[in-house]
Design a protein that fits this description.
Layout: E1 5-11, H1 21-31, E2 41-46, H2 54-67, E3 71-76, H3 86-95, H4 100-103, E4 113-119, E5 122-127, H5 128-131, E6 135-141, H6 156-180, H7 182-196, E7 199-207, E8 213-219, H8 224-238, E9 246-252, H9 266-269, E10 284-290, E11 309-311, H10 312-315, H11 320-329, E12 340-342, H12 345-353, E13 366-369, E14 377-381, H13 385-388, E15 394-402
Parallel strand pairs: 2-3, 2-6, 6-7, 9-10, 9-13, 10-11, 11-12
Antiparallel strand pairs: 1-14, 1-15, 4-5, 7-8, 13-14
Length: 416
């Protein structure tokens, strides 16, 4: 089958970047008027997303708390990730460089929870180990959520709800989301946690469109909700996007939990993770081809159901138990549906191009990306060239060439 000629295209996004991350974190923490006193134990929650520089950021938080004379420890603030086991969640933190050696403090993990209060008529759950500390702090990226739209989405409130709730809380809250809606549940539970769970601080991280740390800001319990709402507005403004609304075939080299909680960021592909809430269908992509699963996902292929075509090399890496736990906890079993699976990347791409209607494959509107986190440089097919030339935020880099595959039919990675 003839393939479309592809152009390397560089996108221009908001480029604010925090130059000295440890200094920025320490300054933010110092400005937050923390209630922490000398000798206090502080549980610092770290999550399971691919947050840029997360180990550096958490270490800076730990160092600041030590300077105050406190006794910090780090715990995994995760729901069902890591197979819903303490060992699995510690392995995820280690993947991101968060260990006792790198943090300079203990790591403590468990799946037991205690009741911290009530919200929406339901018990509010808190990690037992964290609850036994004098104070709790949460560290998380603030960004548009992959499941819903609101004024609070993915960030500190979500970590206080799903992360501190562990598997028991995550399961309960996702079921409550079906009835009440995500934003209502996260807001109600987060407010109850702030009122009852001795939350000392939340450190919010905002990234730019190049997956770089753009801003960090710390809030005490009193200021946290308003602060997170403000950071979300900035995160939405700075977020990377695909450059065109209509796409025949999107080729995604890799998906994974370290890329997005939904495997592929639904804000980028315009497809929801679950059927419970309305989600903007922008961009409008006819077919998505997912070629591989990242190693850092540990076999968790949540979100593969948003692809239409995939490969045997991806399917063979799936840990169905981990994937099932994650998708069932989220009440989104469709996220684990396996698409049509082909022995090679070339077969998967050819099959997608065969399903675009009367448009000839070489004239198809095709975009190829590494993953939904890294879209600063992408490939666009020749059909987009007239539009690219009109856009000051897009720059063609290099000469046109067909989509490249090796002798085994595996795609030549973007950037080669």
């Amino acid at each position: 089958m003839p393939l479309p000629r592809m152009y390397r295209v560089r996108q221009s996004f908001h480029r604010r970047r925090l130059a000295d991350i440890p200094a920025g974190v320490r300054a933010a923490m110092a400005e937050a008027r923390l209630p922490v006193k000398r000798g206090d134990t502080v549980a610092v929650g770290a999550g399971s997303r691919g947050v840029a520089n997360i180990a550096v950021i958490v270490r800076a938080v730990v160092d600041h708390l030590k300077e105050l004379g406190a006794k910090p420890f780090v715990f995994p603030a995760m729901g069902s990730h890591g197979g819903a086991t303490a060992e699995g969640q510690l392995e995820i933190l280690a993947h991101y460089g968060i260990t006792e050696a790198t943090m300079g403090c203990p790591l403590k993990a468990g799946m037991d929870v205690v009741q911290a209060g009530l919200a929406l008529g339901l018990p509010v759950w808190c990690d037992r180990i964290a609850s036994e500390a004098d104070w709790i702090g949460v560290v998380n990226r603030v960004k548009p959520h992959t499941d819903f739209k609101g004024s609070i989405e993915s960030g500190l409130f979500k970590m206080m709800t799903i992360g501190l709730g562990k598997y028991q809380g995550a399961t309960q809250y996702h079921r409550a989301n079906v009835n009440h809606g995500y934003e209502t549940v996260i807001t109600a539970v987060g407010r109850e946690m702030l009122a009852k769970a001795r939350i000392a601080f939340g450190l919010g991280i905002v990234e730019n469109g190049y997956d770089e740390t753009a801003k960090v800001e710390a809030f005490n319990a009193e200021d946290l909700e308003a602060g997170e709402r403000r950071l979300l507005k900035e995160a939405r403004e700075w977020m990377a996007r695909l450059p065109f609304e209509h796409i025949d075939v999107l080729v995604v080299e890799e998906i994974g939990k370290n890329i997005s909680g939904a495997g592929m960021d639904t804000n980028i592909i315009g497809r929801p993770s679950n059927p419970h809430e309305p989600f903007p269908n922008d961009p409008k992509i006819l077919w998505i081809v997912a070629l591989d699963l990242t190693g850092d996902s540990g076999g968790n292929a949540t979100g593969i159901g948003n692809a239409d075509f995939t490969t045997r090399r991806l399917a063979d890496k799936i840990d169905w138990k981990k994937t099932a736990i994650n998708c069932l906890t989220a009440c989104a079993p469709n996220g684990a549906k396996l698409p049509l699976t082909f022995d090679s990347d070339r077969e998967a791409v050819d099959s997608a191009l065969n399903c675009i209607g009367l448009t000839k494959p070489e004239q198809a509107r095709v975009i190829r990306i590494k993953n939904t986190l890294m879209i600063g440089e992408i490939e666009c097919s020749e059909a987009y060239l007239p539009d690219i030339k009109k856009r000051p935020d897009l720059e063609v880099v290099g000469e046109a060439r067909p989509l490249g595959f090796d002798a085994a039919g595996q795609i030549v990675p973007l950037g080669h």
